[in-house]
Design goal:
- This protein has 440 residues and is α+β, with helices and mostly antiparallel strands.
- The strands form two sheets. The protein has a four-stranded antiparallel beta sheet with strand order 2-3-5-6, with no helix packed on it.
- Helix 8 runs antiparallel to helix 9.
- The chain is elongated.
Length: 440
């Protein structure tokens, strides 16, 4: 890449980052609010919850009576003849007859062996499971959003550090040119400085592009225009007083995956009760009101007939033997309970393992962060001394460049360590069921 082109691009990028083109600062709390309203996965999960809520209504349980109405009308117009057993035949034309009827009926199951009671409880449990699934979706989405948010923050700081490195390389290149003009350096010094400046420019441009890409990823997670311009808050707050034992207790009570398994077990137990109710006698009542009015034609013995009245009834049914299907269903329901119990035990062990692993990763990340902070202090001190020695001509370009790269590496490593520690903390809190209480 031509050095003049690189310089022009760097200048443009520098101007774009200046207050003249200041961008909205997307605060962490604001990111959560936007995601809760716009994120596509959260919106889909909310619709699933609405469906589950409708399904869990008492209107879907069989508890309420069934009421139906009916009405009808008939009309006929016939012509012909009629011959009585005694007497003369009679011809008739336009013999009209009409009929009207209406009624209302009620059916209600008084007792069904607690089947609908268990069904209603299962519907409520299904609603609970769907809510837990939605909560899990929200937690995963929030975690993904902050992984992206902190990646934007890390790249923002990395680009800032690389920009500073680029400016130092530019000063070094200019110094080499001036020195050569006054006979204090060689052409080799200029070439070395120019190569380093080109490399730093390429790295700066590459990471700037990565930053823009990650911003678009975050916008997508927030459910808004992917080209929305913004900057992020690069400050970090870490949780205080986290203890493994307390986190394990919280996980047993609040981990969303574990809660789903517990709800699935309760649902399976209700399944046994539902199959048992199939062999219990059932009592149902029915009633209705009917009204009829008929106008008969000339050939009928009756000219008109009206009727109305109430009918009541009751039905007792008992499934004495259904070929063994109820027995098979009950056996399968018991197996489903055993399966859910095993899955719950497995998930409990998984949670304990995952939390212990996450705790170890979190502690390691905190140690690495502290170590990188010390490394940065050492690298900064070394670089400051190298600058003074370079100005005095006491060290070579190679030694100065190494000090410069060591400082940049320490800065980048610290940025990586800081945000890795924070994401490890959030993952730890998610497993323990406390992500909603996290300080982002």
């Amino acid at each position: 890449m031509n050095i003049k082109n690189i310089t022009a691009v760097v200048w443009v990028l520098s101007v774009m980052g200046s207050p003249l083109f200041a961008q909205e600062v997307l605060q962490k709390s604001q990111a959560v609010t936007i995601a809760m309203e716009n994120n596509f996965d959260i919106r889909l999960a909310d619709l699933d919850v609405q469906v589950a809520e409708n399904n869990s209504s008492i209107q879907n349980s069989g508890y309420l009576p069934q009421i139906s109405g009916n009405a009808g009308a008939t009309y006929s117009n016939t012509s012909g003849n009629a011959t009585p057993r005694q007497g003369e035949p009679t011809d008739f034309t336009g013999n009209q007859a009409t009929g009207l009827n209406a009624g209302i009926n009620l059916n209600y199951t008084v007792f069904d062996g607690f089947g609908r009671s268990n069904t209603y409880k299962q519907l409520q449990e299904n609603y609970n499971i769907t809510e837990l699934q939605a909560r899990q979706m929200v937690e995963n989405t929030i975690l993904n959003i902050f992984n992206s948010y902190y990646e934007v923050a890390r790249l923002t700081q990395d680009v800032g550090n690389q920009k500073q490195t680029l400016l130092i390389s530019k000063v070094r290149l200019d110094r080499a040119k001036y020195g050569h003009e006054y006979g204090q350096g060689s052409q080799l010094d200029i070439l070395n400085a120019e190569v380093d400046y080109n490399n730093d420019s390429i790295t700066y441009l590459t990471n700037t592009q990565l930053l823009q890409n990650e911003k678009r990823n975050l916008n997508l997670l927030l459910g808004r225009d992917v080209n929305t311009k913004f900057s992020v808050d690069t400050t970090l707050t870490y949780a205080d007083g986290l203890l493994l034992d307390a986190l394990l207790i919280n996980a047993r009570e609040n981990n969303v995956t574990l809660l789903q398994q517990e709800a699935a077990l309760r649902n399976a137990e209700l399944g046994i009760k539902s199959t048992t109710s199939a062999s219990v006698p059932k009592l149902a009542i029915n009633g209705g009101y009917q009204w009829n009015e008929n106008q008969f034609g000339a050939t009928s013995f009756l000219e008109q007939q009206k009727s109305q009245g109430v009918n009541l009834g009751a039905t007792l049914s008992w499934n004495i033997y259904d070929g063994g299907s109820t027995r098979i269903k009950r056996q399968n329901s018991k197996i489903a309970v055993e399966t859910s119990t095993v899955q719950l035990e497995k998930e409990q062990m998984n949670i304990q393992r995952n939390l212990s692993n996450a705790w170890t990763s979190y502690q390691t990340a905190l140690f690495v962060k502290d170590a990188q902070e010390k490394n940065l202090q050492t690298a900064q001190t070394n670089f400051d001394r190298s600058v003074e020695q370079y100005k005095l001509g006491q060290i070579t370009n190679i030694v100065f460049r190494q000090a410069q790269l060591n400082l940049l590496l320490a800065q980048l490593s610290l940025n990586q360590a800081k945000y890795s520690a924070k994401t490890a903390e959030l993952f730890l809190l998610q497993i323990s069921g406390d992500l909603r209480q996290a300080q982002f």
